[in-house]
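Chain A, query sequence.
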Amino acid sequence: MARRHTLTRTLGFRAMHRFHRPDWSEARNREVWGPVGEAPGHWHDFTCTVTVSGALDADRGMLVDLVALDRILDDEVRRPLDGRHMNLDLPAFAYGATYPTCEALAAHLFERIAARLPAGTRLERVAIAEDATLSGECQRADD
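Chain A, predicted structure.
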């Protein structure tokens, strides 16, 4: 019987973001975005949940080396985001580019994490929650 194994790792980071269009007036931004558009931005204690899949290594009984996975997540999630202002510190979310929504951040991280995983390990899902009531995710499309 064929089996599919998954492993999920969750980590947290604190980051700031702001919804703002530089080509709009302050009044228009305030009208559209309300408090989430106010300068300088607002902080969240985000949660990032990453699910990978693959075959179990018969010698270790796991599908990915957790030290290697944690290093990737530290490099791609925690270090670039923790304590940062997404609009100012991540070119992908600069004012006038992509809004730093949960789902956009999940898509951004999906590509970065997927590119770093060891052979035989596939990224299934990246979910970003800004609090207990709001999250977005990016999932691998079926091949």
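Residues 48 and 128 are 5 Å apart (CA to CA). The first helix runs from residue 26 to 33.
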